[in-house]
């Protein structure tokens, strides 16, 4: 759930998509974390699928610039919208939609699967980043605080970690071990794999926001170097998911002449 | 150990033996046929007839995709997928009985080798490490000299007591109870309102036949599946994936609102005093009614704040509006997914139905001030029909024994009248007795008897001054 600037949808629809729309995220090389990267990639994929141009801008304080505190957010015209859900609605108000061709039952399933990804994959990523001591020590703390001088880098990192841990406890993940979390990831991937089957996209011929979201998370998991490879191994077990990621990458990112995604 | 053959991924090689064995779903122990003849004979009559048990032909047709999903899910602990699933609600009656009969016949047939047949018959595909545990577990629960170990100690479920026309007013308890009813699991249900009385300190809690206590609802359902009470037996792989997705949707969209309703339930003081506190105060014994409701309230509030605090809403109202909007959308989505079917996956209930039912029933029946969500839900006729259908089919007596919600405020009052009066009188008498006793003992009042012989002894009672004298 994010924060959408309150506007009349008429006003939104009146302006066409500008050429200088920008997407803000944290610094790609040193700062951005797995979960934020996945979210950002999902939004980029979605916009690519809608054929809307977007420029990616990296800022160290992107998290604080965002109206809801979450990245990524897009700046279109004079509006700022963050997170995939509200962005999808915003884009729909402008007249572009990927899920119009779906019937009611399919729309319900699409929403449900998006929640599944958020509920399991995203939470697992957060858990791995912030609650697994090895990863926290080696990767997360260093990356999260990298743009800031000492002691701010430590303070901000600890603060964020405490906040995430509280959230984990509230949803019942506080007591989970890493193995249980990895099993949850496996279960989620299996569900996605079974839903995808042999189709090219989740709802057969055309990609939808669900495809964008799944691609964002899976691709990031597959290509991010962590302390161990267990997370990506879980995804690699499912060949149709790998093919799915490859297909979207080729079709929407390489073919358009963009640089390979890091 | 007992059955030789590798219990592991041999299912994939498709060597599931035929006959009654396939009715157990995924028994693929290569060497097990040698033990089969002993068991099949008593078993088949029991299993052939009932509609509740899936016939031997069915699993073969749908073995492959289901097996894949099931073996994968089995990695998480839901290992034993051999379960029989009640086919139709109308068959619910015969189904549990037939299952019990088949189990009993199985157990009776082989008391002498009790450890060995039970794992083969009662435990289906056990993948990986689950196999050892499954068999060890099976061994544990079978005691020589008794029938099936499971029969020795029935499983006990502790859950919140009912109200508002529902068998239980707690979300998790209701879901677990509904699942148990769907599958006909023989549970001894203890409806209590004091969570400290439950073996794990929280509700719901399941005490298994080995005395182990499980208190996480998902784990309770997993355990019931292990014990062959599996409502998801016939789901295809894709339906299993759909189950996961919809459960996530429920948790994400509806759960905060159920908690928010609890939030308005607890926080709205007028409502709190009139409805909630009264209900809890009546239901809970002294001294719990003083601090337990407060503790639960704080827990819910904290969770709500944590989950929504990230949004930094301008005001509470905005947040609430958004929560309700998402909840209404979720309800609409559920309605669209359900369509005109009887249950989410066809004609027989699955675990998803148990959870959806518990959410919907609570939202429908609870007497809460904020009527918007209820009104929206009432407008989705297929969901309302779904709820009443399940209630009438699976909880016919529970639903009937509690008066309809409209009368609930009046009900407890009239019920408690006689007790209230009696308690009042008793407490007044106790107070009087205490005062009189203290007065006598401390000599403020001394009793003068008419007989002078007694006078000195009674005067001796007084420590301080003596007041009147006759």
UniProtKB/TrEMBL annotation, chain A:
Residues 186-248 form the Metaxin glutathione S-transferase domain. Coiled coil: none annotated. Its main location: mitochondrion. It is found in: Mitochondrion outer membrane. It comes from the Eukaryota. Residues 40-161 form the Mitochondrial outer membrane transport complex Sam37/metaxin N-terminal domain. GO terms for cellular component: SAM complex. Keywords: Acetylation, Membrane, Mitochondrion, Mitochondrion outer membrane, Protein transport, Transport. GO terms for biological process: mitochondrion organization; protein transport. It holds the Pfam family Tom37. Involved in transport of proteins into the mitochondrion. Interacts with MTX1/metaxin-1. Associates with the mitochondrial contact site and cristae organizing system (MICOS) complex, composed of at least MICOS10/MIC10, CHCHD3/MIC19, CHCHD6/MIC25, APOOL/MIC27, IMMT/MIC60, APOO/MIC23/MIC26 and QIL1/MIC13. This complex was also known under the names MINOS or MitOS complex. The MICOS complex associates with mitochondrial outer membrane proteins SAMM50, MTX1 and MTX2 (together described as components of the mitochondrial outer membrane sorting assembly machinery (SAM) complex) and DNAJC11, mitochondrial inner membrane protein TMEM11 and with HSPA9. Belongs to the metaxin family. This is Metaxin-2.
From TrEMBL, chain B:
Belongs to the metaxin family. It comes from Callithrix jacchus (White-tufted-ear marmoset). It holds the Pfam family GST_C_6. This is Metaxin-1. One of its GO terms (biological process) is protein transport. The chain crosses the membrane at residues 425-447. Residues 1-66, 85-133 are annotated as: Disordered. Residues 327-390 form the Metaxin glutathione S-transferase domain. Interacts with MTX2/metaxin-2. Associates with the mitochondrial contact site and cristae organizing system (MICOS) complex, composed of at least MICOS10/MIC10, CHCHD3/MIC19, CHCHD6/MIC25, APOOL/MIC27, IMMT/MIC60, APOO/MIC23/MIC26 and QIL1/MIC13. This complex was also known under the names MINOS or MitOS complex. The MICOS complex associates with mitochondrial outer membrane proteins SAMM50, MTX1 and MTX2 (together described as components of the mitochondrial outer membrane sorting assembly machinery (SAM) complex) and DNAJC11, mitochondrial inner membrane protein TMEM11 and with HSPA9. The gene is MTX1. The lineage of its organism: Eukaryota, Metazoa, Chordata, Craniata, Vertebrata. Residues 173-297 form the Mitochondrial outer membrane transport complex Sam37/metaxin N-terminal domain. Keywords: Isopeptide bond, Membrane, Mitochondrion, Mitochondrion outer membrane, Protein transport, Transmembrane, Transmembrane helix, Transport, Ubl conjugation. InterPro entries: Glutathione-S-Trfase_C_sf, Glutathione_S-Trfase, Metaxin_GST, Mito_Protein_Transport_Metaxin, Sam37/metaxin_N. One of its GO terms (cellular component) is SAM complex. It is found in: Mitochondrion outer membrane. Its main location: mitochondrion. CDD domains: GST_C_Metaxin1_3, GST_N_Metaxin1_like. Involved in transport of proteins into the mitochondrion. Essential for embryonic development. It comes from the Eukaryota.
């Amino acid at each position: 759930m994010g924060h959408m600037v309150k506007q009349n949808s008429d006003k939104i629809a009146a302006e066409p998509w500008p050429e200088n729309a920008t997407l803000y995220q944290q610094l790609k090389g040193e700062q951005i974390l797995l979960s934020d990267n996945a979210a950002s990639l999902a939004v980029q994929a979605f916009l690519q699928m809608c054929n809307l141009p977007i420029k990616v801008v990296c800022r160290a304080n992107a998290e604080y610039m965002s109206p809801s505190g979450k990245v990524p957010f897009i700046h279109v015209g004079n509006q700022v919208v963050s997170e995939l859900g509200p962005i999808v609605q915003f884009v729909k108000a402008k007249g572009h939609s990927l899920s119009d061709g779906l019937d009611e039952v399919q729309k319900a399933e699409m929403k449900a699967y998006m929640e599944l990804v958020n509920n399991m994959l995203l939470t697992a990523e957060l858990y791995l980043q912030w609650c697994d001591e090895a990863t926290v020590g080696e990767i997360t703390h260093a990356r999260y605080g990298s743009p800031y001088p000492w002691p701010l880098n430590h303070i901000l990192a600890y603060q964020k970690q405490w906040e995430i841990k509280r959230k984990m406890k509230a949803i019942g993940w506080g007591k989970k071990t890493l193995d249980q979390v990895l099993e949850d990831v496996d279960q989620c991937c299996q569900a996605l794999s079974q839903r995808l089957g042999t189709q090219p996209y989740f709802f057969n011929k055309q990609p939808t926001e669900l495809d964008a979201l799944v691609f964002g998370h899976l691709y990031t998991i597959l290509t991010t170097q962590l302390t161990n490879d267990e997370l990506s191994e879980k995804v690699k077990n499912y060949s149709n998911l790998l093919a799915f990621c490859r297909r979207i990458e080729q079709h929407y990112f390489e073919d358009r002449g963009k640089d390979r995604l890091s | 150990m007992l059955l030789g053959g590798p219990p592991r991924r041999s299912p994939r090689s498709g060597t599931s033996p035929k006959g009654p064995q396939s009715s157990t779903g995924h028994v693929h122990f290569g060497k097990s046929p040698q033990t089969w003849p002993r068991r099949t004979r008593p078993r088949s009559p029991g299993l052939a007839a009932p509609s509740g048990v899936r016939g031997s032909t069915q699993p073969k047709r749908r073995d492959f995709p289901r097996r894949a999903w099931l073996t994968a899910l089995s990695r998480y602990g839901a290992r034993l997928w051999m379960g029989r699933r009640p086919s139709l609600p109308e068959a619910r009656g015969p189904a549990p009985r037939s299952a019990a009969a088949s189990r009993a016949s199985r157990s009776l047939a082989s008391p002498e080798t009790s450890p060995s047949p039970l794992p083969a018959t009662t435990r289906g595909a056990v993948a990986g490490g689950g196999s050892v545990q499954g068999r060890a577990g099976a061994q544990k629960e079978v005691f020589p000299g008794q029938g099936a170990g499971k029969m020795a100690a029935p499983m006990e479920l502790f859950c919140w007591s009912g109200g508002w026309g529902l068998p239980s007013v707690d979300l998790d308890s209701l879901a677990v109870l509904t699942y148990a009813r769907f599958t006909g699991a023989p549970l001894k249900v203890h409806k209590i309102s004091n969570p400290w009385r439950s073996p794990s300190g929280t509700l719901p809690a399941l005490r298994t036949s080995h005395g182990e206590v499980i208190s996480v609802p998902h784990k309770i359902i997993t355990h019931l599946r292990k014990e062959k009470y599996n409502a998801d037996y016939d789901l295809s792989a894709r339906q299993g994936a759909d189950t996961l997705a919809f459960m996530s949707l429920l948790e994400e969209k509806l759960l905060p609102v159920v908690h928010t309703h609890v939030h308005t339930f607890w926080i709205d003081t007028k409502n709190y005093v009139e409805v909630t506190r009264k209900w809890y105060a009546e239901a809970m014994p002294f001294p719990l009614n003083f601090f337990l409701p407060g503790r639960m309230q704080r827990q819910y509030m904290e969770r709500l704040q944590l989950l929504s605090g990230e949004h930094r809403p301008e005001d509470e109202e905005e947040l609430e509006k958004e929560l309700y909007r998402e909840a209404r959308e979720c309800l609409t989505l559920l309605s669209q997914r359900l369509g005109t079917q009887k249950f989410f996956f066809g004609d027989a209930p699955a675990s998803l139905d148990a959870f959806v039912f518990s959410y919907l029933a609570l939202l429908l029946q609870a007497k809460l001030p904020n009527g918007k969500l209820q009104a929206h839900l009432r407008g989705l006729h297929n969901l309302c029909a779904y709820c009443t259908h399940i209630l009438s089919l699976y909880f016919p007596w529970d639903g009937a024994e509690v008066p309809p919600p409209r009368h609930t405020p009046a009900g407890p009052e009239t019920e408690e009248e006689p007790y209230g009066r009696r308690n009042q009188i008793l407490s007044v008498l106790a107070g009087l007795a205490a005062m009189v006793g203290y007065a006598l003992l401390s000599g403020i009042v001394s009793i003068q008897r008419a007989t002078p012989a007694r006078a000195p002894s009674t005067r001796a009672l007084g420590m301080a001054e003596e007041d009147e004298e006759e």
